[in-house]
Amino acid sequence: MTLDPAALLARYDEQERSGTHARDGETTERVGGVLRTLYAADQGFVTAVGLDETTADAAIREQVEFFAALDGGRGRRFEWKVYGHDRPADLGARLEAAGFEPDDVEALVIGSTDDVLRATEGTQVPAGALLREVGDETLDDDARRIADLHTEVWGEPIPGYAERLVHDKRADPRGVRLYVVETDDDARRVLSAARLEMRPGAEPGAAPLSHFAGLWGGATVADWRGRGIYRSLVRLRAQHAAEAGVPYLQVDASPDSRPILERLGLVQVDWTRPYVWSPPGVD
């Protein structure tokens, strides 16, 4: 399939940055020129949907004041996600000046679900590894193990990550799917993990509420990289997206995963960068 990056980005903004979908326990609202989400797992998220040079600084102050006042004045950490085409063009610099910590820049890549399935046909995890989807009966334990994996791979814990995985999966079991790859032995060492987030129709077989399924949370231990695990996780998630009728896959791709995804047919449509604000005294 020939992909038009500009058209894909416009459709992505329309469907994924509109604030029309929230899971149980979450609230999403448009406040001035930003979209703000409060997650049940003690976190927040903001992205710009209508700022400019004259309104950005006031919007940043307003969001910092809002999150600083939460939880009885203790404040709540939140992420402001910046896209390359957001306005004003210096939004990231303004966030840093307001005390936000920037994270790594990633490529926003999008591809056809069907193209990915064709490109990954025959892909399997390597010998000695087992890929499985996380079920409700093991969810609490698997979420903790996935969080531990992320700490091992990235070198620091993600606050509240296990709790958020558990909440999101139970609040939206058809829209959130979790996967682990572990050693096929008694040790069951977690080698890799990933998740799929999508908005399927209200009933099985109904048209999806969004044309985009997000591939998130990919992490693999160093000594098992380069052996097809990531491709296997991409393929299984593409299969499940296809079953739900979702035509496109979307990834915020790191420098490690981007070349793999481009070989599978995904194209870059923009870049993203998260900026994190934390209450005073919280690392």
- If classified by CATH, what would the architecture of the largest domain be? 3-Layer(aba) Sandwich
Q: Topology as H/E string?
A: HEEEHEHEEHEHHEEEHEHE
Count of β-strands: 12
How much is the radius of gyration in Å?
19 Å
Strand % is 25-35%
CATH class of the largest domain: Alpha Beta
Please give the share of residues in helix: 25-40%
Described by the principal axes of the CA atoms, the overall outline is globular
Instruction: Characterize the largest beta sheet: strand count, sense, and whether it forms a barrel.
Output: 12 strands, mixed
* Low-confidence regions: none
Average residue-wise pLDDT: 94
Distance between the termini: 45 Å
The CATH homologous superfamily of the largest domain corresponds to Gcn5-related N-acetyltransferase (GNAT)
**Structural class by secondary-structure content:** alpha+beta
Q: How many helices in DSSP terms?
A: 8
Count of discrete domains: 2
Reported by name, the CATH topology of the largest domain is: Aminopeptidase
